């Protein structure tokens, strides 16, 4: 059986090549995690990998961090715009992180990009991205305060490290020994991707791989359009307040979605102007949020390539918080991104309520930094923490988890205490933090730490401190996030402080919203929640109506 619309390549061959491409990016991601030095990459797995065609379109992406799609969307195209392709050689590797020059969506995400040569010509590109926990204690009024901006530049030429470029990058890092070792892991992941892709070309031929890649993108487009057709035509909108410790004012965000036959239009008119804070999103970050929502709603098995994007249209005011222009700061762009994802899902709940969860947690970030008393080197602990997922039509929300675009793991207590001069004093779920409902929202978590043998700067913050995650269909909102600073802490700003050795600081994250009337919750489930300490006696009686 030949693949639809193509002569010469059968369906089985295309499927085999598609599976091979997916396997390559998954192997790249696993190699990066296993070779990484910092806990943020090897434990939290805050990294991704992808393969691009010769024009810079994604043909395969590892299923790791959805937000990283935005960081990878433009890197190859931007490199092709900047570089004379005739000067490229096998072993050239580009590094980049700048949100306004195709490299990333915030400066901590650093991309390694490498062309794949076969038969003397470029046949594809491989890339990986990793979040580097560096650039702490910096301002966020504009991007120049957030760290070193790196447009796509050659870090390796013909396989030879450009030491002057590496020295420039490391000089601007606060934990350079971590960076250089994580960079080596990123290089290893790319080399694996290059070798695997070249082996695929040897087996099937360059032209067959290129043709199959085009056909896989067409297949993704067909699957996307088929999924969109299952959503009733119409215009669906949602508006909600957004708060975060990064900004004093409550901001109003808005989204409208129009479904017409087999295409979607997303309109973010009404979102506020970009701010003098790290909340702003570049357009590629907005694209990543939209693509994530569509993929989760129509068919999670649709291959993550550029063909999937074709039926999706996005408009957002230039210079707004969701489509910022330089030099707007972008470090905490995930705060707005996570809230927009929930809002898009809420808009779709008007059309397909059975596929949409209630509002979910945001991302609470904790950073502790100081001089390690054992090594004498500057040390940075940085972790983004999830909370409660929103409840669904027939299921409770998941407790203590990253949701939506972040999808990263936690740092295990043993790894945290062995790599950082810190003690984990508490790590627990928060009673009554999940929004009540026929199905309960997921519970938030508390992570309390204290420095050991040194004074540490603590930075804590995130969204949903004043405006909780909403419930659906009569469900109640989730619990609010908050910061707990130990006695004697001297505040430096709205979210910073100095901890002496042994003093504690804690992040309490936000809970997910409930789904349905709490009085309709199965009595046995209410009793079990009460017995397990998930809810208090008061909530069981007054909200759930337990006798």
From TrEMBL:
Highest taxon, organism lineage: Bacteria
Gene Ontology terms: biological process: glutathione metabolic process
Domain Hydantoinase B/oxoprolinase residues, every copy: 10-518
Pfam families to which the protein is assigned, alphabetical: Hydantoinase_B (PF02538)
GO cellular component, one term: cytosol
GO molecular-function term, one example from the UniProt record: 5-oxoprolinase (ATP-hydrolyzing) activity
Protein's UniProt name: Hydantoinase B/oxoprolinase family protein
Taxonomic source organism: Neorhizobium lilium
């Amino acid at each position: 059986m030949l693949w639809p619309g193509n002569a010469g390549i059968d369906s089985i061959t295309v499927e085999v090549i598609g599976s091979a491409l997916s396997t390559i990016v998954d192997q790249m991601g696993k190699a990066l995690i296993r070779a990484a030095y910092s806990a943020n990459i090897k434990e939290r797995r805050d990294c991704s990998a992808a393969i691009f065609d010769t024009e810079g379109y994604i043909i395969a992406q590892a299923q790791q961090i959805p937000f990283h799609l935005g960081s990878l969307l433009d890197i190859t195209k931007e490199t092709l715009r900047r570089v004379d392709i005739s000067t490229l050689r096998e072993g050239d590797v580009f590094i980049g992180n700048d949100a306004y020059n195709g490299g990333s969506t915030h400066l901590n995400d650093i991309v390694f990009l490498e062309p794949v040569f076969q038969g003397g010509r470029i046949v594809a590109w491989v890339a990986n991205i990793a979040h580097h926990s560096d650039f702490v204690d910096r301002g966020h009024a504009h991007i120049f305060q957030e760290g070193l901006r790196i447009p796509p530049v050659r870090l390796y030429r013909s396989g030879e490290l450009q030491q002057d470029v590496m020295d420039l990058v490391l000089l601007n890092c606060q934990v350079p020994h971590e960076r250089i070792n994580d960079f080596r892991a990123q290089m290893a992941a790319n080399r694996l991707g290059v070798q695997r892709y070249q082996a695929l070309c040897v087996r099937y031929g360059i032209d067959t791989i290129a043709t199959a890649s085009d056909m896989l993108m067409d297949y993704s487009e067909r699957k996307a359009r088929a999924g969109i057709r299952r959503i009733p035509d119409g215009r669906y909108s949602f508006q909600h307040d957004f708060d975060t410790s990064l900004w004093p004012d409550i901001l109003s965000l808005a989204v409208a979605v129009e479904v017409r036959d087999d295409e979607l239009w997303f309109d973010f008119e009404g979102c506020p102007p970009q701010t003098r804070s790290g909340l702003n999103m570049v357009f590629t970050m907005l694209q990543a949020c939209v693509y994530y929502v569509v993929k989760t709603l129509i068919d999670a098995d649709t291959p993550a390539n550029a063909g999937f994007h074709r039926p999706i249209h996005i408009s957002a005011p230039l210079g707004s918080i969701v489509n910022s222009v330089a030099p707007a700061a972008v470090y905490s762009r995930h705060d707005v991104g996570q809230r927009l994802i929930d809002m898009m899902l809420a808009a779709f709940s008007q059309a397909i309520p059975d596929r949409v969860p209630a509002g979910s947690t945001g991302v609470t970030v904790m950073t502790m930094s100081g001089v390690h008393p054992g090594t004498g080197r500057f040390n940075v602990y940085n972790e983004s923490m999830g909370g409660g997922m929103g409840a669904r039509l027939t299921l409770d929300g998941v407790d203590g988890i990253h949701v939506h675009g972040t999808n990263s793991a936690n740092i295990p207590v043993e790894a945290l205490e062995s790599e950082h001069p810190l003690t984990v004093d508490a790590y627990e779920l928060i009673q009554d933090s999940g929004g009540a409902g026929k199905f309960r929202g997921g519970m938030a978590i508390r992570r309390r730490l204290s420095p050991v043998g040194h004074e540490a700067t603590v930075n804590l913050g995130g969204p949903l401190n004043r405006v909780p995650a909403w419930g659906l269909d009569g469900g109640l909102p989730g619990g609010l996030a908050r910061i707990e600073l130990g006695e004697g802490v001297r505040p430096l700003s709205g979210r910073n402080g100095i901890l002496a050795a042994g003093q504690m600081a804690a992040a309490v994250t936000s809970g997910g919203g409930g789904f349905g009337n709490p009085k309709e919750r199965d009595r046995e489930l209410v009793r079990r929640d009460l017995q397990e300490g998930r809810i208090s006696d008061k909530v069981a009686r007054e909200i759930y109506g337990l006798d």
